[in-house]
Specification:
Helices cover 24% and strands 39% of the residues. The protein is α/β, with parallel strands linked by helices. Strands 1, 2, 3, 6, 7 and 8 form a six-stranded mixed sheet that branches.
């Protein structure tokens, strides 16, 4: 399971030109699910996301987590994150989960996030989404479990 996280001042998702999910300051998380991922890997990744220290403390150092800052978390499914780009000029998706497995683990991740964090918004699995963000920093990390 992979998560590309971006510290944002704000982020939002539109589907069919209609607002679907939005947050203020916090993390935009693009979530990629691979074939061998499980609920245990989703739990591990979520803990890493919620506790990863990417927000500035009073001295300007990255010492605070999303939970400490009580920022928003916008979770967007992103199957292209698990693409194999090592060879050729076209990405391969053989490592990716099936749509059914991907959606089930995405939904599980979101349920767990909502149970553990007060401000969670989402995109819609498999939808054609337009994601807007104001990256803060920019600060971007690829987390893998």
């Amino acid at each position: 399971m992979k998560a590309l996280i971006q510290r944002v001042k704000s982020a939002s998702v539109d589907i069919a030109a209609k607002p679907h999910g939005a947050i203020g300051p916090g993390i935009l998380l693009l979530l990629g699910v691979e074939k061998n991922d499980t609920e245990a890997s989703a739990d591990k990744l979520l803990q890493k996301v919620l506790n990863y220290r990417i927000f500035a403390d009073t001295e300007g150092k990255m010492n605070l987590s999303l939970q400490q800052r009580q920022g928003g978390l916008l979770v967007v499914s992103q199957f292209t994150l698990v693409a194999d780009t090592a060879k050729g000029l076209r990405p391969g998706f053989s490592k990716g989960a099936t749509p059914e497995q991907g959606e089930a683990l995405y939904d599980y991740f979101v349920r767990q996030a909502r149970a553990q964090h007060p401000d969670v918004a989402t995109g819609c699995f498999g939808a054609d989404m337009q994601v807007s963000l104001i990256n803060d920093g920019p600060v971007t990390f690829l987390l893998e479990v």
